[in-house]
Structures
1.
Amino acid sequence: DATKISNFLRQVIESDLERGTYANRRWAGSPGDAAHQAAGTPDPAKIRTRFPPEPNGYLHIGHAKSICINFGLARDYEGVCHLRFDDTNPEKEDAEYVSSIKDSVQWLGFDWNNGRETNLYQASDYFDFMYRAAEYLIEAGHAYVDEQTIEQIRINRGDFSKPGVNSPFRARTPAENLQIFREMRAGQHEDGSMVLRAKIDMASPNINMRDPAIYRIRRATHHNTGDAWCIYPMYTYAHPIEDALEQITHSFCTLEFEDQRPFYDWLLQRLIEGGLLSAPPPRQYEFARLNLTYVITSKRKLAQLVYDHKVNGWDDPRMPTIVGLRRRGYTPASLQLFAERIGVTKSDSWIDYATLEGCLREDLELKAHRGMAVLDPVKLVLTNWDAEFGAGHLEPCTQPALPNVPEGTEPPPARHFSMGKEVWIERTDYEEVPPKGYKRLFPGNKVRLKGGYVIECTGANKDADGKVTEVLATVIPGTKSGTSGADSVKAKAAITWVGVADGVQAEVRMYDRLFLDAQPDAGGKDFIESLNPDSLKVVIAIVEPSLAQAQPDDKFQFERHGYFVADRVDHVQGTKPVFNLAVGLKDSWGK
Ligand code: ATP
Ligand code: MG
Ligand code: MG
């Protein structure tokens, strides 16, 4: 399959499948400890991956890459991918985000239900196990309660230039530690007064191995476990355990977690030794996160745009959130194509925004129905129309909805509209004095109204300020598109238009990039300053009747203008058409 470009993650999986690294795993139908897993049967999934969002915001284009990688690889290698809410941080998380994340994953075309299993999990369901595992680490001498202040811990951890200094609490006995840890859990100590730390190596060149904190005291209500806990596991401790309990084989994450991998391996090794987890453990592999020019992919900064009303909500079509991209007119296929095309690498780089736009154009080119819309309308009057055809005559015209129908597929019904004495044309399609090379309307020039007749321009009426109010022309009978006389008169150009009689007013939202700077938040810059003041311009356009009949979310190519989507929130079929510019026909940024 040509779309499956080889990458190092595929190579890792293929080599594990070849060597049978995970061939003897058992699966008991749900996550669980070593005993639970031993009671299972051979795992029907060849590999298990997971997408583990923290439910603290809406997913963005970077997450789409991660979703496509994790769900895509599981699909390609007869595995399964778990959707797991990494909800170990109660202060920032909310059930609202849980449901929007589920929607986004499904909309992208992936499913955690595979008929056999429903692989939807939440890390907070493992709090009991995590607590048990912490008690085990204490008993085995691998963890201790530290009562230094956060500041002391930080200073004593040292840095790259020097080893750390042991905490005065490091030599406590397991019995002492166990007692204090149980007091922590029972709510007998203040928030922030002590932490549980893994006991590893204060001289390790990897700072993350210098006795990382694994539990903290935090009196916070959790959206799932309520007030059951006043101590919460740290992410670096929780994540490997979540992976292991779910029998994940390949744990893919972004490069910033590379330094955490030694702790990931250390922790799982200790818990396997203790009989709490079964071997072989999952392994972590890191890939480069997505950096996209003109785009911000930090949930915190995206939230600032929303709360400061720089955009109209999380699903504003200018937002790089999945809900925003969807409303902008992006399709699941275009985002999957994008994820394939940018590939998976081990070093950070910037992807050009035009790559994303190109994927949408490529997807819509063959699928989006065509239609004519006049975005900056001026009236064209055919002065001989009544004399030639009779007053009030409307000439029925037709055009295909799709010019190139893929072989073996039924073409969609043709579009119907009518031409009359008055039609709307683009203001830029008339020039009194044509610039060099201009082929459209100027006095004496012949032009075809696409799908209709050839006309000859005779001039224009203007208002007192010299602004054109009406373009004037004569129709040349016998030249209608699709009739035998169509080629009898040569026209220099064909222009798009909409009849005054059957055109429908529509609100069209012309979106541009949200930021002017290609790297709006690089190097600590204030990204707010780089906001593009012209990222949204609303125009009142006139569209042909077939476009007014669009359903919300339908995508179109407005001929000559670009790809547009009927807004999924504000568009009302027939009565209140609202379209969003999804992407132009060509990459025109900077021109
Ligand atoms: P943010 O930094 O925007 O808050 P996050 O990394 O904290 O994002 P999580 O909810 O923890 O968000 O992310 C879930 C998964 O998505 C993680 O495995 C993470 O590595 C991945 N991910 C997040 N951002 C990107 C990105 N820009 N490119 C690729 N993967 C990403
Ligand atoms: Mg995170
Ligand atoms: Mg992050």
2.
Amino acid sequence: PSFSVEILPEVDSTNTELMRRARAGLTDPVLLVGERQTAGRGRLGRDWKSDTQGDGGTLTFSLGIALQPQDWSGLSLAVGLSVVQSLHPDLQLKWPNDVWWQGRKLAGILIETASAGDQRYAVIGIGINITPREGDGLRTPPAALQELMPGIEAPVVLQKVAAPLVHAVQVFASQGFAPLRQAFHGRDLLYGQPVVCTDGTQGIAKGVDAGGVLLVHTDNGLVKINSAEVSVRPA
Ligand code: BTN
């Protein structure tokens, strides 16, 4: 797939920057890397601190792409799946869009949409921890890619994930999530686990439906979760 890559030494947030560009009209897909983000954003209004340099170094980038899918709902799963498939067989996905390794989060994804006239855009932001961070003794530090791929550097990671990601997003736009469902289940961290969702639903996670909606088997039967935070309930 054709796309351009741009690297900025400093930006408020690669997502924010591409949202501005999308609203002004984007033509070809752009992959924007921020070596430093001064106002990186996570999901649910959380901050995402990031710097490529030093301990706790991350790769932070966003893809801005014009998109006309019939149903946007499985996009975050398609993106997460593409990222884990292009990086390592041991990486797992925690619905709806975190990448985990050995019980710790390794990467996060923030997807936003914009429009300019009739055109709609997806801005897909990805932050991948590359170098391990010192723990503060209180909480376990997040996972970093160098723990499972020693010596790997951010530019190589970008090279591995970029083209497959653009391709995966374009395939998703034409075929939707359904063809990816089996592959998602193979990476699904929550499958078969006792979970509790922020909307109060509790039960056993049973994967996702053909649209990427989370299925939870509860005392009252199968419940579909469209959006919520989900955590594994300690036994
Ligand atoms: C999350 O786990 O809450 C999502 C984190 C997403 C972070 C990435 S870093 C690149 C892009 N720019 C941002 O401001 N956020 C996303």
